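Encode chain A's predicted structure.
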Amino acid sequence: MKTSHRGEPLPSPRADLLARFHATRQLTEDLARDLGPEDQTVQSMPDCSPTKWHLAHVSWFFETFLLLAHLPGYAAAHPQFAYLFNSYYEAAGSRHPRFARGLITRPTVAEVAAYRRRVTHAMDTLVAGADEGKMAALAPLVEIGINHEQQHQELILMDLLNLFAANPLKPAYRPGPMPVAEPAGEAAFLSYPGGIFEIGHDGGGFAYDNEGPRHAVLLRPFRLAARAVTNGEWMAFMADDGYRRPDLWLADGWARVKAGEFTAPLYWQAAGAGFEAMTLAGPQPVDPAAPVVHVSYYEADAFARWSGRRLPSEAEWEVAARDLPVEGNFLGAGLLRPRAAPRCGAVPAQMFGDVWEWTQSPYVAYPGYRPAPGALGEYNGKFMSNQMVLRGGSCATPDGHARATYRNFFYPHQRWPFAGLRLAEDA
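Encoded structure for chain A:
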């Protein structure tokens, strides 16, 4: 066994993998700890899922892709769980309609908790008992399962906020003070040279298949804002009739404005001379210095036009972020909402954490991309149509989950993610 410089035994890769697996499973349960059964069962809209469903789905993922396939003698916990808790894996069989997940009153919250314990125990047995040859094949699947569950941790919080915002009582998920910062001041813009750059994952450590292959891109010189767009700047956009000027909007976005769908960021309400917003800490005054959040791609693009600038491409964003430490206001900070940027120097702030940042790039395959065979090949590739890329992570993204090459993606009208924006311009 390898030892540290102090002579202490170092954890083996297998032990490290199991420790991260257990930490991930525990964090998911911690997120649901203070929720009642009613909180965990209701579905606020078709895009959202009940917390109970998330808790079961991530367990179904381990059961389906690891335990049933690789643990001799393991039997599915229930013959109907595959139907109830499959999300979109066509190769894994039929499934319950997404919009009706809130109707799944059985299994109960307690039964789902027992299901989670069963799967976790079986995963311990599988990983502990695998020989080195089998472990080499299992480890990448366990990594996918861990990262998949981390994605659902953020979804739990997104979906809970949408659910609680629909409740007239406006309950707080995790009460806590909202830090208020000094006004942000005008954002500085940092310059980047043009040229040929390599983007995409280089193969070191975990990444999703959509982050590769690594490839060359040609960029013209550009400038990038040193921080995300703030609530105060968004208020100026609104005061200047930003939601009433068709010249600022893409046609599909303007159609939603005319339909009354977009009038302010999601969860904002007028409050006296200002605004308040529903947060995971309940209704809070909108802090002008904090990054704007819960805006669609259409809104982000309209704001960029209003400002005389544009959204960055995902390649520009990655080139600016690639040498920065992956540090910021993530889930582990416990704030659960964006916070104002520190005073910006020669490097951009908030590239990681706070808010996912819309880019102007459509979510499409990189050159040479091929999805993996089988059901797991459906994880990313089949969604490469009609969606836009976001980068950087948010205040609800688990620590250690984001990286410079990470490609999140949503439809351009969607606003319930923790999504904001950063401006760019040609140099």
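Residues 362 and 388 are 4 Å apart (CA to CA).
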